[in-house]
Design goal:
Blueprint (H helix, E strand, L loop, with lengths): L9 H10 L1 H11 L3 E2 L7 H9 L1 H11 L4 E2 L4 H22 L5 H12 L3 H10 L15
Antiparallel strand pairs: 1-2
Length: 141
């Protein structure tokens, strides 16, 4: 099953199709906003392979050759992924594992994500909540 990448810019969707989601995420996180050119001579291929792996680098080299290409930043998509991971971590710490109180979980998230406490609270408050389901049986009459 292919992941849904429709929310990504077209250039990022092409990278995912070319080298796979995991390698594309690594490429975007490490080189987003840059123009890359892979030259067989020199160490540009080896440096990129150390960053994203040999197979994805070979696929990029076959596709682009030595032509420069732009790596998108995908700022909004990366923030959305970070925010959903943060919510999952908070839920895991406070609900599933029950190892932290809400305040302790916030402090843990601040350290883990390198954000301020206010930013973490804001992110957790803006994540859409699941609708409340009323399981009570309605009156028939």
């Amino acid at each position: 099953m292919q992941p849904d990448v429709s929310h990504l810019p077209e250039s990022a969707q092409r990278l995912v199709a070319l080298i796979g989601l995991q390698a594309a995420v690594l490429l975007i996180e490490r080189h987003g906003g840059k123009e890359l050119a892979l030259y067989v001579r020199g160490d540009s291929v080896a440096r990129l392979a150390a960053s994203i792996g040999d197979e994805p680098t070979d696929a990029l080299l076959r596709h682009f050759g030595s032509d420069p290409f732009n790596v998108p930043r995908c700022t909004a998509a990366l923030k959305a992924v970070r925010n959903s991971r943060m919510l999952a971590d908070y839920d895991r710490l406070t609900s599933t594992e029950r190892t932290h109180s809400g305040r302790e979980a916030i402090h843990h998230l601040v350290e883990s994500y390198g954000l301020t406490e206010r930013q973490v609270w804001r992110i957790l408050k803006t994540v859409p909540k699941m609708p409340v389901i009323d399981n009570s049986q309605p009156s028939l009459f």
